Amino acid sequence: xxxxLINKTGDEVxxxxxxxxxxxxxxxxxxxxxxxxxxxxxxxxxxxxIDTAYLYGDSEKFLGEILQGEYKQKVIICTKxxxxxxxxxxxxxxxxxxxxxxxxxxSIDYYLIHSVDLKTVNRLLKRGLVxxxxxxxxxxxxxxxGFSYHxxxxxxxxxxxxxxxxxxxxxxxxxxxxxxxxxxGIEYAASKGMGxxxxxxxxxxxxxxxxxxxxxxxxxxxxxxKTTAQWALQWVLNNRNISCVLSGMNSMExxxxxxxxxENTAPMSMxxxxxxxxxxxxxxxxxxxxxNCSTCGYCMPCPQGVNIPECxxxxxxxxxxxxxxxxxxxxxxxxxxxxxxMGKAGNAGLCNGCGKCLRKCPQKLDIISELKIxxxxxxxxxxxxxxxxxxxxxxxxxxxxxxxxxx
Length: 407
Prior knowledge:
2 domains; globular; TIM Barrel; 17 helices; single chain; eight-stranded parallel beta barrel; two-stranded antiparallel sheet
């Protein structure tokens, strides 16, 4: 891979970065053997940028354990302050010191303020954010500072100008090229020499794998050898202003595919015809997607136990893939994954409208209203009586029904 230069810091970062938010799991915790294999393989094949956060479970601690010796010297570490938990100045110092301990480092290469919009930054400024950042940099605990953005595009430039930032992390993909930072906002940040790191290049997986038939046909007619994920990653990497695209890879197949794409995609390398192909697919997807959710999970946890991302994802998939009939694959998936058949219930009907998710959603979705739609779509009357009966059928039988419907 040909590394990309961040003008402001002088760092050369790999165009593909390893996002440690969605590491492979085992019994609800990081599958250490599998995750270690993936991360070492990625580093050995040129990936030098790893992104994590305080809020990513035991991700920081795990990375601190495995990134020792030669691997410690080979990677640039990016992590994030949990802005949602900061109530006073001392909290910022506490979290940074705790993160240095978890990561087993004396200094963090890129320290981002996590999940911010203009309101969040203003709150942190009143609590001494500038003094904290300046002090941490002077003490050598932080090398470079930035923020991960989850606001509206109209406020992005204001935040860029609010401090002498070194980098910014934004959601960006061919479907969401005009939300949050937008292409114009990215150009503005790049004009200041900042590093620009991209999250959700595949929109939580919606832009990879199976897609609406019309969209798949457009891609296949243009190039039958390329996957939908290749098209999506190539589109982001084609932007010369992007420093690094973060991907939460949890299988060797995903990792190898993404490495191949990054190795073969230079800035400004897509042809006009290829860009037109992506635009055509985007129009098809926009017509089919009902809820503009990226399944990032920032709305979680829900106090009532609703699995919000999965509920919205299953609803979207029903219409993206034009699933007809009353008992369809999405209906079965809903009861299997959030309805309580295969574990603890996290269905939309549990929502009591408390609104805590609304403040955390990067897309500013009206999640309460959307969950009401999902509930109406999938939840049968008398759900609490149906579930015990469904469970009594047995999980093997339920899986067999699902397999038949997915043929």
